[in-house]
Design goal:
It is built from 13 helices and 10 strands. By secondary structure, it is an alpha/beta fold. β5, α6 and β6 form a beta-alpha-beta unit.
Length: 314
């Protein structure tokens, strides 16, 4: 059969690279074919999720940044400074986490989705018109965030005026001044030319971009055990591939931005400068628990335990 797989990025961006590897593995190990739909071909992230839930698409990559309305617990990825900056620790966490590999699949299943994989896409940095060294510098800055209530809370706590928007509107909104800032991982800042419409990149180590790949659950449950195995193996292979692909990607991307636009200011805040941003974590965590109750609390606690074992294993 031909299976349809949509994602939120271009073919040569991280989600596209993952999808291409997945396709290659499935096609090499079965008689099935996968048709890939990059960003823009089937609509925004919310549209491709609807299509996957309706069974028009068999596979979809949607980042938790857009899944908050459907699965409130997925917002846990927006508690600032929860995920570690060390790449090896982060990779070990995603590989072994019980929260990621056992608890989240149950929550996605309730929405008719078979969660296949969650993986990181790189450290998230802000791009703005003016330098940011403290929360005071974000005052009166209309800052675009993904459509996610907890991310709104997080940027409020950072001092900004958060403006949730779908991705397709961000470049234009920066260009026309409707917003003055946004955040994304390094590779994406470079590939989508965010430097053309902003002047400063600021990295404060507050987050790593997480994404999730899933299948329509009815479709997946209806497959033979053999086909399910092909999909699981292809997911594992694509996961290994994408972690490897991202070694040095953040650094190289920031370098490319500087080459493309030498006047671009690229700042990494010091430990001292980060402090007031880090101090918002408790308040955002409390907002998360408020939104998600007992279920969210359990996932957050499990994630913390998983993060602890990941860092101890390094
Ligand atoms: O900011 C966004 O909306 C987008 N950022 C990334 C890295 N991937 C897809 C998402 O739509």
């Amino acid at each position: 059969a031909t299976w349809r797989y949509a994602f939120e990025e271009a073919m040569d961006e991280v989600q596209g690279k993952y999808a291409q590897k997945f396709k290659e593995e499935v096609e090499a190990n079965s008689d099935h074919t996968i048709q890939l739909f990059p960003f823009g071909t089937l609509g925004e992230s919310a549209d491709i999720m609807e299509q996957a839930q309706a069974g028009i698409l068999q596979f979809v990559d949607q980042s938790p940044g857009f899944t908050g309305a459907l699965i409130p617990e997925a917002q846990v990825f927006f508690v600032p400074y929860l995920l570690p900056q060390d790449q090896e620790t982060l990779n070990t966490f995603f590989r072994n986490s019980k929260a990621i590999n056992e608890m989240f699949p149950e929550l996605y299943a309730e929405q008719g989705l078979e969660l296949l994989k969650m993986f990181p896409e790189g450290e998230v940095c802000m791009t703005t018109q003016e330098p940011v060294h403290s929360p005071a510098d974000l005052e009166d800055v209309k800052f675009r965030v993904m459509t996610n209530p907890l991310l709104v809370e997080s940027y409020k706590a950072f001092g900004a005026t958060p403006t949730p928007l779908p991705w397709g509107e961000v470049y234009g909104a920066l260009q026309t001044g409707i917003i003055q800032g946004q955040e994304n991982p390094g590779f994406f800042l470079e590939s989508t030319k965010m430097y053309e419409v902003t002047e400063v990149v600021t990295c404060i180590g507050h987050n790593n971009f997480t994404t999730a790949v899933m299948a329509n659950k009815d479709f997946y449950d209806g497959l033979s055990e053999e086909d399910q195995k092909v999909i699981q193996n292809a997911s594992d292979a694509a996961f290994d591939y994408i972690l490897d692909y991202q070694k040095n990607l953040q650094e190289e991307s920031l370098k490319k931005i500087k080459e493309a636009k030498p006047s671009m200011e690229i700042n990494t805040l010091s430990e001292e400068e980060r402090k007031p941003f880090m101090e918002t974590a408790d308040e955002v965590e409390a907002a998360f628990i408020e939104m998600t109750g007992e279920s969210g609390k359990k996932i957050l606690e499990q994630m913390k335990a998983d993060l602890k074992s990941a860092s101890q294993s390094q």
